[in-house]
Every structure is written in structure tokens, then in C-alpha cells.
Amino acid sequence: MQIKDFFQYVGKEVTVKGWVANKRSGKTLVFIILRDGSGFIQCVVNKETIGELMFNEADRLTMESAIELKGIVIADERQSGGFELQVSDMKIISIAEDYPISKKVHGVDFLADNRHLWLRSKRQWAIMRIRNRIIFSIHNFFQGEGFVQMDAPIFTGNACEGTSDLFETIYFDRPAYLTQSGQLYGEAMAMAQGRIYTFGPTFRAEKSRTRRHLSEFWMIEPEMAFFDNDQNMDLIERMIVFIVNETLEHCKSEFEIIERDTAPLKKATAKFPRITYDEAVAIIRGERDVNGVNAIASLEKELESALEDIESIRKEIKDKENEIKMPGIKKGARNFKQNILDTLKNEIKELEENARNIPQWIESAKNFKHGGDLGGSDETVLTRLFDTPVMVYNWPHRIKAFYMKRDSANPELAKGVDVLAPEGYGEIVGGGERETDKELLVKKIEEHKLPMKEFEWYLDLRRYGAVPHAGFGLGLERLVAWICKLQHVRETIPFPRWYGRLFP
Ligand code: 4AD
Ligand code: MG
User: Fold this and answer.
1) What distances in angstroms separate CA 23 from CA 32, 46, 70, one per listed residue?
2) Torsional class of 59: left (φ above 0), alpha (ψ -120 to 50), beta (otherwise)
3) For 475, which of 13, 33, 194, 428 is 20 to 30 Å away at the CA?
4) Quick one: pLDDT at residue 105?
């Protein structure tokens, strides 16, 4: 029997196998938080009902020991999940050694080194469930729209997204690269199937240690024959709204566990604004307002109020610290004040981070040079003005990939689109219309110094029945990070690979 089904067994006896996620002992009662993979439940072991011998065994259980419990399911609203198990029998499956992960706060490297165990923590468990639902809803969305899923190769002989961040490997007796994107193969398949999507691992050797970059990540790349970039943007919007709504509907308890406020997510399903690159630049530089709000001025105001808040919270923290130290203070009162103190310390941490970041954001936003790519902080400055994801289209062709369609009305522009998520998350989707003109494509391949021989098959797609087509790439981990509101993409994937990390 699984914990997730216990709501059907209230008042009845069940048997369940799982691990001790936590334990609290009293004189006559032991409280075990049991996890079985499907959920968590508090189990009460009562000395009177279970007998001294077994009670002592329960009392000695270590974290992550595996046990089998028999007991009656009780509805209890105070418990997370709403149920409790009153234990009548227990069998030990295995006793765990001293478990390295405890309730205390661990450092980033420690947790990363123990990822194989960290995955068991309630928060990580919930994030992986949300990731799973997101994956499921992506397949649902595309299958529902009649797309055919295809798998692109992982070993490739060419670069799709620029040559600077390729992972090189040996393929029999020649060099090969791990794919950066399945797009080029997706284009070929779209000419066979009309509408396709890939869902697979992609690799980038970028030496960036940011909260958005992984060296191995999963990308969803749809490609549609006879689509222009407007239709492409319609599809992106429909897809993101669908995924967000699915998670809102099916991941309520997981969002509660990770304390994700879902109000901003609900707001994010409204119509997405579409702005050109030129407009985006003007907004970032503070030359153009959005709904009466100026990006730079609002940041300056926020900085000012953050500094004021920091000062007053610092005072409060000092006061509380003194009160706690007062002689004769009762334990209850001290705990109460300690709780307030912890909350204040968390609040101030966030404010201090803002106070550190905002001046840099303002600096780089004011000095943004037209023609350049948007950096992480520029994306933040822009997206803070919106509740929904923002689509930025019509990019300078010079900073975009070789395959991107030039705008015949303005040859300086390429018909690309980046989708930037709100709440500071930035780019989650990159895509656009593809160049169909073979001569222009050949010129671009030369300009980008790519080996023409490796692209002959790709040029065939322009030789035989070339049609307008478009597509995009959705970064799964970036999407999960935004939907779960995580600090870093490394928590979005079971075993993350980022610059330098190959363990576990
Ligand atoms: O913008 P990118 O580089 O676009 C492409 O690869 C196109 N071939 C896609 C297409 O049109 N079919 O990457 C697409 C998305 C980004 O928007 C981002 O969400 C994610 O992939 N991404 C990364 N995610 C995590 N770590 C990285 N290092 C990423 N690089 C890109
Ligand atoms: Mg991109």
C-alpha cells in the first residue's frame, strides 16, 4: 500500500514499507515521519499498544532506516497530508548508518556531493514531482496538437549553436561533438512529418557558473513546416500557459511543500506581451516606460526603500537579540522571539541581496549598447516590469545563429524570438523562423566559419522542397526553476552537470 492512497483507508488497517525521514521520541511515544516515495506520513508508536520490546526498537531507529509498519489510518488535519498512522506492528528491513544529511543547514557543495541522498529530502522530492508533471504536460500538449516526437542524435559532426562551447569527443577515429541542440535534425524531420518535437539531452561547454547554466540540460525543440515567427510565438504562448495551468492543477501539495506562492504563476497565464528587440533596449535603458513605469526609476526607488528597510530591520534584530539574552526569560517566550528573529534574518538577507544587485543592474542597464545580446541582469531589469513571460523578437542578425531567417524588410534583423520568464528568471525559450534561402545560408555558414561539408545534408533541405518553417527550444531546467521559484537550476535535475561537476 502507498501513502498517497491512505485517504481511502481512514479507520482501516494498512501495511506500508518506507524509510524513516525523521523521528522524535518521548517517554511513551515515538513519532516517525515515514516516507515511501509516494508521500510522507506521521506514524505514532505507542509503548502501551506495541509493547516495550518493539517500542525500544522504534526508539533506536536511525534516520533513513527502512521499516515496515502496520497500523490504523487516522484523519488528522493538523498533519501535513491530513493523515496519521497509529502503529500496531513494526518490522525492521535495514538499519541505516549515521546519515550525513540532517535538519541543520548544509552548504551548497556538501549537498551537491550528496545529491544521491539529498534527492530523498522532502523539498527535493517535491521538486522532482513537479518536474515530472511538467514533462508529462509537455508531451500532452504536443501530442494533443498532433506533433510527432522525434529523437535527434547526440553524437554530431557539426555545431548548431556556435563553436565556442562544444564538448568534443572521439567517435571511432574522428572527432565528434555532443549535440548543443537537435534543431537541425528537427528541421529535416519536420519536412517529413510536418510538425515534430524533440525531447532530449543537450550539452554546452560554457564555462559559466551562473544560476541559469548547466553543461547538460534537457531541451524540447518543436519544429513546424509552414509556420512563420508569429505562429511560432502563438504556439510558445499556448504551450507555456498549458504547462503552468497543468502544474497549478496537479501539483498543489508539492507547491505547498516547497512554499511556492502560486499567485504570480496564476497571473503569468495572461496574454504575453510581444516587444521588438529595439523596444526592449529602450525599456532597459529607461528611455521608454511600460504602463507608466520606468525601469531605471523603479529600480532606484526600490533600492532606496530596501536600504531604509535594512536599517530598521537591523535595529529590530538587535532588540530581539537583547531580549533573548535577558536573564530569567522563559523558554516559551525565548522560542517565540527566536522564531521572529529567524524570520527577520531571512528578510534582511533578501533585502541585502537586492541592495547589492540593484546598483549593478542599473549601471549595466543604463550603459546597454544597442546591438548586443541581453545579459542576465538586463533580462531581470526588463522582466520585472511584467507579470507574464515577455517575448522579445526581431533581433540583430549578427548576434543570432547562422540558421536564423533574415527579415526581408530590414536585413539587419533576424526573425528570432526569446521568451523571458518573470520573477527574475529570464530566458527560458529561444527560437525563430529559419532561413530558407540557400545562398544566404551558405554565406552565413562561411561567415560563422563552420565546416561546409558537415552542412551539406542541411542544405539539401533547401534544395528539395524548401518551405517557410519555424521552431524553438524550451530549456526544461530553466522552466522548472521558474515554476518552482528556485535559486538555482541545479535543484531542477536529478544529477546536475554544471561547469566542472561530474559527481555523483
Ligand atoms: O537559445 P538556445 O541556445 O537555442 C537553441 O539551441 C535553438 N537551436 C533552439 C531552437 O530554436 N530549436 O537554447 C534554447 C533554450 C534557452 O532558451 C534556455 O532555456 C536553454 O535552452 N538553455 C540552457 N539551459 C540550461 N543551461 C544552459 N547552459 C542552457 N543554454 C540554453
Ligand atoms: Mg538563446
Assistant:
1) 5, 13, 17
2) alpha
3) 194
4) 85
Per-residue cell: 447: 561567415
Q: What percent of the chain has pLDDT over 90?
A: 93
What percent of the residues of the chain are helix, what percent strand, and what percent coil, each to the nearest 5? 45, 25, 30
| pLDDT tens digits, one per residue of 47-100 | 999 999 999 999 999 999 999 999 999 999 888 789 999 999 999 999 999 999
DSSP 261: -
CA 199 to CA 180: how far, in whole Å?
13
| Bridge partners for 41 per DSSP | 34
Pull the grid cell for residue 345: 534574518
CB atoms within 10 A of CB 37: 13
Report field, pTM of the whole predicted structure over 0.85: yes
Q: How confident is the model at residue 158 (pLDDT cuts 50, 70, 90)?
A: confident
Regarding the beta carbon of 475 and ligand 1, being less than 6 Å apart is answered yes
H/E run at residue 143: helix 122-144
Pocket test for ligand 1, best of 214, 478, 490 (most atoms within 8 A of CB): 478
Dmax (CA) for the chain in angstroms is 87
Q: Which of 410, 390, 409, 413 is nearest to 400 (CA)?
A: 413
Q: Do 42 and 85 form a contact (C-beta atoms < 8 A)? A: yes
Q: Which runs of consecutive H residues, i.e. helices, occur in 285-330?
A: 295-325
Bridge-based pairing of strands 469-475 and 426-433 is antiparallel
Let me know the angle formed at the C-alpha of 421 by 496 and 131, rounded to the nearest 5 degrees.
40
Report CA(11)–ligand 1 centroid distance (Å).
Answer: 51
Q: b/e for 357-366, b at 16 or more Cβ within 10 A? A: bbeebbeebe
Cβ distance 159 to 166 under 8 Å? yes
- Report the 3 state secondary structure along 193-259: HCEEEEEEEEECCCCCCCCCCCCEEEEEEEEEECCCHHHHHHHHHHHHHHHHHHHHHHCHHHHHHCC
With a CB cutoff of 8 Å and minimum separation 6, the contacts of 303 are: 354, 355, 358, 359, 362
The helix (H) or strand (E) run that includes residue 502 is: none
183 Cβ inside 6 Å of ligand 1: yes
Give distance in angstroms: CA of 431 to centre of ligand 2. 7
Question: Going by DSSP bridges, is the β-strand pair 469-475/216-225 parallel, antiparallel, or unpaired?
Answer: antiparallel
pLDDT tens digits for range 177-234: 999 999 999 999 999 999 999 999 999 999 988 999 999 999 999 999 999 999 999 9
The residue written with cell numbers 497530508 in the block is 81
